[in-house]
Amino acid sequence: MATKKSPSEFQDPHADNGQEGMASDLSGFEAPDDDNAMGSEAVESETEAFLFGVDSQIMAVKSELEKLLTGLSRESDGVQSQAALDANITGVGVGVGDGESVAGAPGDPVLEVYTLEPESNGELRGRLASVAGVSALSDGDFPIKAVHTGVIDAQPHRMRLRPAPGGISCGHFAITAGTLGCLVRGRSAPRINRLMVLSNNHVLANTNAGPLGANILQPGPFDGGNNPADRIAILERFVPINFAAGSNNVVDCATGWAWPDRVRRELMYISGGVIRYFRVGSVPVAAAPGMQVGKSGRTTQLTRGGVTAVGVTVNVNYGGGRVGRFVNQIAVRTPGGNFSAGGDSGSLIWTWDARRAPVALLFAGGGGTTFANPIASVLARLDVQLVT
Amino acid sequence: MATSLPPGATDFLDSDPLPVTRQAGGDAAVAADRLPQVVIDRLMGIAGVDGVWIERDAGGQRVVVLHYTPRGSRAHLPATVEGMPTRIVGGEPIRAL
Questions:
Q1: B83: which residues sit within 8 A by CB, 6+ positions away?
Q2: Is A3 part of the contact surface with chain B (CB cutoff 8 Å)?
């Protein structure tokens, strides 16, 4: 079950925690090539198409405000500068108007300005006209919309990170976002030479939709992942989920064939605002009631819980009226909190002890309980072994 | 969003994982934590029941948990299964996360 490591292929595990060097020496694996991937030229840039039709004056003001934001970010030393407070702006973008609160017809492009403090559209327009010196903003009909966001914090498990660790946002190009669980490799040629990311079918394969070769992005599309620029892997294999009445499923899992220089074997977590990395063991263990476990996931990040049940049978909703029955699952709960939430799917669950032995693959939840596939079943069905 | 962990709770993540040593005798305990398939099928056939499993209560006794999604009366759900008391949880569907 465990990955056999050769010195030339894997690095010394005693590398300093949190250092980029830990991810090195995954170079012994073959990278996917474009024959296996969906053609990049087939990916339409809907964003560019939308912006192409936006009024040039809106784009000019947007550009001016982006320069202002750049200047404010240079001034900041971690706290909000006085200039930033004066400008009351945290971001800018192009949205669509409702035809009521903003000048123009419903659906017309409007300049959205994200603010630290609540402010009316008129107040914002007038103040930015003086701060940014943009004459167009003195026009009362300029379509500008204030959107109160407050301070925008980075979401570390949702950011773009290379090489990408386990526990971070990822997903098929057509989904929202899930979690990169960990790395695996095939058990026999040619897949033994492929370094792969492990997650759920509904994260990497868009719930049976595939197709094989589809781009897998980090972060996931909902977290800003762009296709194909943020591609770290291509869909390599998935176990179909059977939604037919009377059918039983055991796993919701898939692999993505990764570029070795775009991923790392460690999992991440945040401590004191700093990204830290850790390794899990390479030998899985079976879950048992009472076992303390942990996971690192895109949404709830690092959490601890307890296995409350094994041999679980559940009906799981996948949207669109699709319900799949899963048997022999594992249930996990965190007293007084949530072990997981939407976006944590695909997280590897491991023993919360010095072994950090893989136990399960998180995929569902409801009513305060998280459900996960036994990791041994996942590895067997995908015919892979862990790379930890 | 993250569940807060007490200081020092993650110190064990800094070292290399320790090897796994196999322990005998786990299979019997696991078997007692599983219901017979025919019982699972019967319980899952009750409208609104979308999950069935065995848990331990605070005293360590096994209880059969029924994940029941609809709100309203639960009087029609069994009070015991295979000699074990039942506990009803849920109130919302189980979803892929």
A1: none
A2: no
Report chain B residues touching chain A, CB-CB < 8 A.
Answer: 1-3, 5, 9-10, 12-20, 26, 29-30, 33-35, 40, 44, 50-56, 65, 67, 69, 89-97
pLDDT band at residue A172 under the 50/70/90 scheme? very high
Q: Which residues pair with B66 in a beta bridge?
A: B52, B88
Q: What are the start-end ranges of the H helices in A121-245?
A: 121-132, 201-204
Which residues of chain B does A311 touch, with a Cβ-Cβ cutoff of 8 Å?
30, 33-35, 53-54
Token pair, residue A72, equals 């404010």
B10 contacts in chain A (CB < 8 Å): 269, 271, 276, 302
HSE toward the beta carbon, residue A154, CA cutoff 13 A: 11
Q: Is the model's pLDDT at A211 over the cut of 80?
A: yes
A24 contact partners, CB below 8 Å, separation of at least 6: A11
ipTM of the complex: 0.90
Q: Which residues of A21-42 are buried (b: 16+ CB within 10 A; e: fewer)?
A: ebbbbbeebeebeeeebbeeee
**Model pTM?**
0.75
DSSP assignments along A355-384, one per residue:
T--EEEEEEEEETTEEEEEEHHHHHHHHTE
Cβ of A364 within 8 Å of Cβ of B94? The answer is: yes
Contact B55 A308 (CB under 8 A): yes
